[in-house]
């Protein structure tokens, strides 16, 4: 998914929001019936599959390259269950992407402060989720 595709999605969301706010919903201009959005939703499953395959291959490569024993592991270990860790990871990733989308791509925000907002979000995510 390219930056142009993401921009198209954001423009479609803004256009649909504008239509709902104005109260004039036309079938041809709504977000869900847009031809660009339909083409993008066909690309999303392939994008997710590519991301999962890439992360599995990267993890497998690191596992084969480095012989790390459980005692020598220097990272963090989840305190709760696997499901709890997955939900917490989902929430922190959502918050990070929300801040990135809101600060870095919005015309109304101050572009010079985008790095500070994103960095502070990462800091809070690390302090809360580990």
Which sheet architecture does the biggest sheet show?
Answer: none
General shape = extended
Radius of gyration: 20 Å
Return residue spans where pLDDT drops below 50 for at least 5 consecutive residues.
16-29
- Cα(first) to Cα(last) distance is 29 Å
Structural class: mainly alpha
Brief digest:
The chain is mainly alpha-helical. It has helices at 3-22, 35-65, 82-104, 114-129. Helices cover 69% and strands 0% of the residues.
Pick out its properties.
130 residues; mainly alpha; 4 helices; MIP; transmembrane helix; transport; membrane
Structure, explained:
The chain is an all-alpha fold. The chain has two domains: 1-69, no CATH class; 76-130, no CATH class. The chain is 69% helix and 0% strand. It has four helices and no strands. Helix 3 packs antiparallel against helix 4. The chain is extended. Mean pLDDT is 76; it is low at 16-29.
């Amino acid at each position: 998914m390219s930056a142009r595709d993401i921009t198209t999605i954001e423009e479609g969301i803004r256009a649909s929001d504008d239509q709902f706010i104005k109260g004039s919903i036309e079938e041809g201009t709504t977000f869900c019936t847009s031809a660009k959005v339909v083409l993008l939703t066909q690309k999303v499953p392939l994008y997710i599959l590519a991301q999962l395959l890439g992360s599995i291959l990267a993890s497998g490569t690191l596992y084969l390259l480095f012989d790390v024993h459980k005692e020598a592991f220097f990272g963090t270990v989840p305190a709760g269950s696997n499901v709890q860790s997955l939900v917490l990871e989902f929430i922190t990733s959502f918050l990070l992407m929300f801040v990135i989308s809101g600060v870095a791509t919005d015309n109304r925000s101050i572009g010079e402060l985008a790095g500070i907002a994103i960095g502070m979000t990462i800091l809070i995510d690390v302090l809360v989720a580990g």
